[in-house]
Amino acid sequence: MTEFDVDVLVVGAGTTGLTVALQAHALGARVRIVERRSVPFRASRATVMHPRTLELLRPLGVTDALLARGDASPSARLHLKTQVVPVSIEQLDLPGTEFPHLLLIRQADAEAVLAAALAERGVIVERGTELVRLARLRHGGARALLRSGDGQADENLLCRYLVGCDGAASLVRRSVGGWLGGDFAEDAVIADLELGPPLPPAPPVTLEPEVVHVVVGRRGLVILFNRGERATWRMLATHRAGAVREPFGQPAPPVPAEELQRLLDESGLPTHVDAVAWSARVRLQHRIASRFSRGPLFIAGDAAHVHSPAGAQGMNAGIHDAVNLGWKLAFAAGAARRATGRAEEPPAPTGPAVPAGPAGASGPAAQARSPLLDSYAQERRPADLAVLRLTRLMHWAEAGSHPFAQLARAVLVPAAAPLLPWLTRQRRLTTAGVRTLAQFWLRYPTSVLSVDVRASLVPVRGALARRGLRPGSRVADTLVRCDGRRVRAHELMATPGVHVFLQAGAREMPERLRGPFVHVHRLDDRPGTGMLVVRPDGYAAVRAPVLDERALEAWLRLVGLADG
Ligand SMILES: Cc1cc2nc3c(=O)[nH]c(=O)nc-3n(C[C@H](O)[C@H](O)[C@H](O)COP(=O)(O)OP(=O)(O)OC[C@H]3O[C@@H](n4cnc5c(N)ncnc54)[C@H](O)[C@@H]3O)c2cc1C
Questions:
Q1: H, E, C per residue of 452-496
Q2: Distance 20 CA to ligand 1 centre (A)
Q3: DSSP 8-state code for residue 301
Q4: Beta bridge mates, 419
Q5: Which one of 9, 36, 287 would you pick to mutate in the ligand 1 pocket, going by the greatest count of ligand atoms within 8 A of its CB?
Q6: 315 CA distance to ligand 1 centroid (A)?
Q7: CB of 221 closer than 8 Å to CB of 215
Q8: pLDDT tens column, 71-83
Q9: Which residue among 44, 68, 97, 438 is least enclosed by CB atoms within 10 Å?
């Protein structure tokens, strides 16, 4: 039987890899995380974190630190030719969440918070260490060849699972599946700038500093906000790609100051580039891997799908992947370790001692399919494909160089300008937009992990399980009464693990079904006898009109938390 050095090897310490490592470790896995870059800092690309992402990260204990580093009440101005329209995004009308706002946070800050949380738990990111080769092992697990820049000998590591969070040019993906999609005809331009008032004869206007300025121009969006890393202002824009383009994964070339000034002039923003501290031109693509996993290998984040920045989705979708995968790997590894332990015990007189654990198996049983681990690709690939389609559409509208797109931006948007102040005041409209972009609607109803027990016979009552809350849905952050106190559901779910909510009249949960990663909450104010089981990533899993021991035990076995 293979002796693994580690349960989970995470390759890449961007936001995706750090989140996988944090969650897998929080749920009992032995984790290592390696990162090719020797220094933590690199210029941020992502700057917007969605409210649902904050909810997903909450059980990992990092949201307070993220909120402290970011701006949770950003305000924006939409510039349309001569008009400036304020857009109210400070407080969104988002009921049922602790985070009814966008968070403006630099990707580098988000990475620093996640890496610090890992370090507090004793997992240090191994920087300057690169995965150079990998192979799947015949009897389960993978072999990874790691090379560190400090001249030490290469390390051969045996891991039960290997997760490629190694970005768009992923090495791991080559061993997992194909790469489908294409390039955008536009590149992104990112720059950190010092800006001054426009040169005479233009009037000396100063841009409001604490505001995100968005210009809708014929050539695309230009965005300016004062969260630069090497200078006060960060500029984001798109630019038609030239004929010669660097291969993906190569360092992005800087953009000349004159070109940045030209982009600003074309946008009509009254400002002058005083100094360029840093700039880069980034190639954009829309691609998704044909598979998200193969045996012990998994890919997540940009390694599995790459988007246009339109809609601010890439980092958020990667974190969604990570919290979907981390707990599954941890539980599967735990089940496999227990199965290995039993196999090493003397054979029981009544029969074979090693039942193949359904969640994660080792030895020959590792070849068996694991519904738990398979559910990662089954749930996340369609979700990421939908995000990819949405961002392609948004990219076309915001930055596409197609004549129709340019005409729409040049003519239709300014024509609709008088309506915009009214439109942006329509809280419900903004809320619906943010809910869509933040993935609040995302559900996994057809997942093998979503089980509705005899729902048609006895409906489950109570706000946690009323209309719409079907297995596979996000559990809303509603107020409940538990153990005599009023508390929000997400506060109860803020501990990593599976959460079993029992209605007031439900039977006691048997001791044998409890465990360090199974938390039980009785809702005093929810009449009824039912139960709702919630996964560690906050999605409802099992709904039953009574505390159904058989269904619960079968589900816990499916996810590797019960043996048999
Ligand atoms: C202009 C722009 C703006 C954006 N804005 C937003 C936004 O506002 N919101 C949003 O959600 N997304 C945004 N994105 C997308 C977002 O930046 C990415 O989706 C996100 O960085 C993906 O994170 P990741 O951890 O999956 O990959 P990465 O951040 O690419 O991390 C991969 C890591 O793996 C390491 N690595 C690679 N190969 C190896 C190896 N063999 N061994 C060891 N380590 C390795 C790399 O060094 C790197 O640190 C934007 C993108 C662009 C281009």
A1: ECCCCCCCCCCHHHCCCCCCCCECCCCEEEECCEEEEHHHHCCCC
A2: 14
A3: G
A4: none
A5: 36
A6: 7
A7: yes
A8: 998 888 888 767 7
A9: 68
Instruction: Kindly state whether residues 271 and 354 are assigned to the same domain.
Output: no
Are 294 and 281 in a shared domain? no
From 285, 304, 333, give the residue that closes a domain: 285
User: 125: CA distance to ligand 1 center in Å?
Assistant: 16
CATH number of the domain residue 521 falls in? 3.40.30.120
Separation between Cα atoms, residue 396 and residue 323, nearest integer Å: 30
Identify the residues whose C-beta falls under 6 Å from ligand 1.
11-17, 34-37, 45-48, 107, 130-131, 165-167, 171, 188, 190, 236, 282, 301-302, 309, 312-316, 318
Q: How confident is the model at residue 406 (pLDDT cuts 50, 70, 90)?
A: confident
Atom 11, ligand 1: which residue's CA is nearest? Answer: 315
| Segments forming the whole domain that contains residue 189 | 184-285
Residue 365 has pLDDT above 50, yes or no: no
Q: Which atom of ligand 1 is nearest to the CA of 130?
A: 42
pLDDT band at 432; cut points 50, 70, 90 = confident
Q: How, if at all, do strands 293-294 and 451-452 pair?
A: unpaired
- Whether the CB-CB separation of 77 and 211 falls below 8 Å is answered with yes
User: Separation of 102 CA from ligand 1 center, angstroms?
Assistant: 20
Distance (Å, whole) CA 166 – CA 10: 9
In-domain check, residue 124: yes
Asked whether the predicted pLDDT for residue 7 surpasses 80, the reply is yes
Q: Which atom of ligand 1 is nearest to the CA of 190?
A: 1
For the chain, the residue count is 564
In a domain, 471, yes or no: yes
Q: Within 10 Å of residue 75's Cβ, how many Cβ atoms?
A: 14
Pocket of ligand 1, candidates 173, 315, 387, 388: which has the most ligand atoms within 8 Å of its Cβ, to mutate?
Answer: 315
Q: Given the CA of residue 34, which atom of ligand 1 is nearest to it?
A: 43
| 288 Cα–ligand 1 center, Å | 15
Helix or strand or coil: residue 46? coil
Mean pLDDT value of segment 481-499: 96
The mean pLDDT value of the chain amounts to 88
Determine the distance separating the centroid of ligand 1 and the alpha carbon of 314, expressed in angstroms: 8
Assess whether 461 and 533 both reside in one domain. Answer: yes
pLDDT value at 464 more than 70: no
Residue 393 has pLDDT above 70, yes or no: yes
pTM: 0.92
Let me know whether 189 and 328 are in one domain.
no
Index of the ligand 1 atom closest to the CA of residue 315: 11
Determine the atom of ligand 1 nearest the C-alpha atom of 306: 19
Burial of 201 (0-12, 13-18, 19+ CB in 10 A): exposed
Residue 207 pLDDT > 90: no
> Confidence class of residue 220 from pLDDT cuts 50, 70 and 90?
confident
Total domains in the chain come to 3
Q: Is 171 helix (H, G, I), strand (E, B) or coil?
A: coil
- How many angstroms separate the alpha carbon of residue 200 from the centre of ligand 1? 41
